[in-house]
């Protein structure tokens, strides 16, 4: 949702943090995706239309993208596709990869604390208290 909002409505949404996002619906787990979308070979245009990567070129605000490289739910390839599209269109963003962490990004000593501090500090930096 964060990517779709930042990419599709850049005049409204200025800052977002996206953790383990589905960047391309064609790459997401078929057990979840096809339950709602049907199968890609019958509905490919809708999969593309609903994928944030389709609109990455529109990013105008602040994006922190976070993904665990060992994510077995939303494969890390989703992050790479979004990253490459943002680079292609010269859109600045920040990225944090958590090595060998799964979808929940909790494995390893101090990982959860690091993740929460990262998100909090990013939001405070780009949305200072009292900002309008």
Strand numbers in spatial order across the main sheet: 1-2-3
Mean pLDDT: 94
Structural class: alpha/beta
End-to-end separation: 23 Å
State the shape.
globular
Largest sheet: 3 strands, parallel
- The total of helices stands at 5
What is the percent of helical residues? Answer: 40-55%
Fraction in beta strands: 5-15%
DSSP, total strands: 3
- Using only CA atoms, what is the Rg? 15 Å
> Which regions contain 5 or more consecutive residues with pLDDT less than 50?
none
What is the H/E string?
HEHHEHEH
Description:
The chain is an alpha/beta fold and 132 residues long. The chain is built from five helices and three strands. Strands 1-2-3 form a three-stranded parallel beta sheet, with helices on both faces. The radius of gyration is 15 Å and the shape is globular. The model has no long low-confidence stretch (mean pLDDT 94).
Summary of the model, kept short:
The chain has 132 residues and is α/β, with parallel strands linked by helices.
Features:
132 residues, alpha/beta, 5 helices, 3 strands, 13% strand
């Amino acid at each position: 949702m964060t990517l779709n909002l930042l990419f599709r409505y850049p005049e409204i949404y200025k800052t977002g943090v996206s953790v383990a996002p589905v960047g391309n619906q064609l790459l997401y787990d078929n057990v979840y995706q096809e339950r709602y979308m049907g199968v890609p070979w019958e509905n490919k245009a809708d999969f593309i239309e609903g994928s944030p990567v389709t609109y990455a070129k529109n990013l105008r605000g602040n994006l922190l993208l976070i993904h665990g490289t060992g994510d077995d739910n939303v494969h890390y390839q989703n992050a790479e596709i979004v990253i490459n599209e943002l680079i292609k269109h010269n859109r600045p963003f920040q990225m944090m990869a958590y090595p060998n962490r799964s979808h929940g990004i909790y494995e390893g000593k101090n990982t959860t604390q690091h993740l929460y501090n990262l998100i909090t500090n990013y939001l405070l930096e780009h949305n200072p208290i009292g900002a309008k």
